[in-house]
Amino acid sequence: MSSHASTVDPKKAELWDTHHHSHDVISTRTLGYFLYLLSDGMLFATLFAAYGVLSYQHSYFGGPTPAEFVKPWYTFAQTIALFLSVLAYGFGMNALKHKNKSGLINGMLAAFVLGVVFLVLDIHDMSHLYSMGITLASSGGMSAFMVLTQVHATHIFFGLIWILVMIAQVMTKGFTEETVGRLLTLRMFWHLQAVIWVFVYIFVYLWGYIS
Amino acid sequence: MLVDLPGGWSPLLGRLAWSQIPYANPILAPLFVAVVIGAIIILGLITYYGKWTYLWKEWLTTVDHKKLGVMYIIIGLVMLFRGFIDGLMIRTQQVWAVGPHSSGVFGSLHGYLTPFHFGQVYSAHGLIMILLAATPLLVGFMNIIVPIQVGARDMAYPYLNALGLWITAAAAALIMISLFVGDFAHNGWFEYAPIFEMQYSPGVGVDYWMWTLQLLALGTTLGGINILATIIKMRAPGMTWGKLPIFVWASLASNVIALTSFPALQVALALVAADRYLGAHFFTAGMGGNLMLYTNLFWIWGHPEVYFVILPAFGMMSEIFPTFSEKPLFGYMTMVLASMAIAGVSWLVWLHHFFTMGAGPYVNTAFSVATMLVGIPTGVKVFNWAFTMYRGRLTFNAAMLWAIGALFLLLVGGLTGMMLAIPAINYMVHNSVFVVAHFHSMLLVIVYAVFGSVLYWFPKVFGFKLDEFWAKTMFWLFSAGTVLVFVPMYMLGFMGMTRRLEYVFNTAWQPYLDVMELGIVVYTLSVLAFIVLLYVSVRDHAKNRVGADAWGTSRSLEWLTHSPVPFYNFAVLPHVNERDELAWRREHGIDHVRPEHYDDIHMPNNTGVAIIIGALTFVLGFALTWRIWWLCIVALLAIIVLMIIRSFRGDPGYIITGAELQRMEEEAYRREAQIADSHHIHPVSGGVVGNAMAYQRNDSSK
């Protein structure tokens, strides 16, 4: 192992990069964003771990438990809204492939409106709980419930701002290397939030409902 | 307001009030005056010499990875000094406050620090040394070296790189301002539940600690993404994974850990914030909270973090040993696998920080075995370094001495770590200073590797070598200090001395504490030697100028380009043929072959956005600490708006034409030709075990 056998003839070796390697900006950016999403996934994994530890009977300290107030059909409506939003975004990206600017903007607008529906449903749900006196200060279990669901909602909120920014950028700049790269990274972000919502729905709402 | 705040709160200033300024403190008030005078002198000098424009254009707005790396290292060294002063204060308090008859001053019953102040000192010492000294130093070196070693012109995302630096700087500023405005956490650098809860720690100390760490975690995650993407995407043509320099491999393993583990810390801290700011009950003693959840979440990050800081240090040693043994690194592939194995196992050992939690024999055994597993890849590395040196032509210059010192400390720290991995022993010495001595040995491995790297890579970055005499003086003083402080500490640990004592009850320990105080004095001398080293080296820099290959026996790509490295790194990107590309070229006499023609290259523009966002994150952290809500909202909105504006404007970059590049390159070659070639090194094969290529020194004067 200490000796590394030479395989290249030094006389003929290519020493400098004489070819023009066009630097692929979009693929570098999407890779970096994918790496960021890994860390975002770890963030939710940690929150789920905390929720797991704090969802025993004693974690609710005799206070309200999710089984008492969770309405799976209500959150299922949220699920449908978010999934349709992702689908609309997908249609928009399909229009991007055909360089169809208005198609993309329509898809993004639909995704935005459906995302807003998701968020409004969430805020309504939270204010309803607040009116019943259920907050994150109720018990350790409720803290975990609220923080996990609302961190996800915060992600959706910033995603919605981002969608608006991207609609504006596509309208003013068209399809440049930068805007297309950002559309792709935003798509990854939006998809991941929907995937994480699946886990939130199953482990927090459905599991909370039956336990 | 969900949380009852003890003390006052006003909408304009939050919890901030004049009474929070410790102007009556006999230690902090003079320090504050000294800091203000020092700052006025520095700012005055910058103004006098008219350097503000230079500073803004060349440093504060730069996106050049080398300059950002240098600034990371400056932050790291300054914070290392601050952490060292904290260490000096801890040692002095412990040698002073021994036994009931010891005297006390400054309002303290024993020694000179009150328990509350002493708690802040050791908490700040721990946090600063790990996250504001070791981490920026290592991130700085990865920033400078990784892009050049992979043959790239810059990082994958130069702007993000600047952002990471300025967020780290904001965190450093936040912990420094806690000295003079309010107070810092006094419950240890990793805190405990539920003592950090509002009712037990009502001050702003825990909030300072929390937001400092949160900012650092953010900056480090951004940096980690950048280094990973650089390694994956920006390698020069021909550089396959098997030809990657070993420091790059170490950086890859390290940043995989950073990227995956720091989110766990961010969540742990965010949940503490939810408890302290919103009245949640994650870690409270009642109301369904779970105290050990905090400890688990913290160390799920905390132990991978330990390997996040040690792996780059291993990478640095793996660069220094081959260069000064004049041999290729022994066992490259096993070294790569060992780094990756350490990165993987780092996730399976967190519970060994609190075996005493009482999770039961099965859990403790599993974590004990996992901890011992770490010893296997680490042992592989130790043997690889030993075999690299075996029958090599060793040069014992200062950089090599630091690397060898690191190897010895790794043995001491690693073997005591194996002892601590056994729960039966761990229960005996848990939270004793034996543990403190163990992890100081490990973290000193990093310090040794960093000082070795400072000496090793300094000529690459600045174009001249550091002074050997003073570097060696510093090394021997530092090593003497290490022995004098930590050998007695191991012994005291076995005698049952627990950590963080502001009053030492057992007078029989006095002689050991005296030796440790002597050790910290010797450490102080080594700090002075470092300052002399910098002064002497800068004074004599004209004599110590070096060419591209500063040491004459180095092996990887960074030594192929000029010293100091031009801002574009490589005028023409190299094509990589071999693992140790430069060594291979030198071996075949083609290391001075220049590119035939120069093409236009594209470089990113400087930007002031990064430093402004960094300043705003500091404002945000400060406002959150003091609960100045309007300022939080303003700072957060300003950050978001700035990011959106920046994204609309984008960065078109600029073009350096081939002709201009050729002119700059020829000037650099002319400059290099004037430097007398003092090495006269020519390749001679054989003579080294394994038929490896070594380099004969032909002294032409004979």
Blueprint of the fold:
The complex is a heterodimer of chains A (211) and B (702).
Chain A: H1 25-53, H2 66-69, H3 72-97, H4 101-131, H5 140-173, H6 177-210
Helix pairs in contact in A: 1-5, 1-6, 3-4, 3-6, 4-5, 5-6
Chain B: H1 28-48, H2 52-60, H3 65-96, H4 115-149, H5 158-177, H6 205-233, H7 246-278, H8 291-325, H9 332-345, H10 361-389, H11 398-420, H12 423-429, H13 433-462, H14 468-495, H15 510-539, H16 581-587, E1 601-603, H17 609-626, H18 629-649, E2 654-656, H19 658-674, E3 681-685, E4 693-697
Antiparallel strand pairs in B: 1-2, 3-4
Descriptive account of the structure:
The complex is a heterodimer of chains A (211) and B (702). With 211 residues, chain A is mainly α. In chain A, 75% of the residues lie in helices and 0% in strands. Chain A has one domain: Up-down Bundle (Four Helix Bundle (Hemerythrin (Met), subunit A)), CATH 1.20.120. Chain A is built from six helices and no strands. The model of chain A has no long low-confidence stretch (mean pLDDT 92). With 702 residues, chain B is mainly α. Chain B is built from 19 helices and four strands. In chain B, a hairpin with a 7-residue loop joins strand 3 and strand 4. In chain B, helix 11 (398-420) packs parallel to helix 14. The longest helix of chain B has 35 residues, at 115-149. Chain B is globular and about 75 Å long. Chain B starts with 27 loop residues before the first helix and ends in a 5-residue tail after the last strand. Chains A and B meet through helix 1 and helix 5 of A and helix 6, helix 7, helix 8, helix 9 and helix 18 of B.
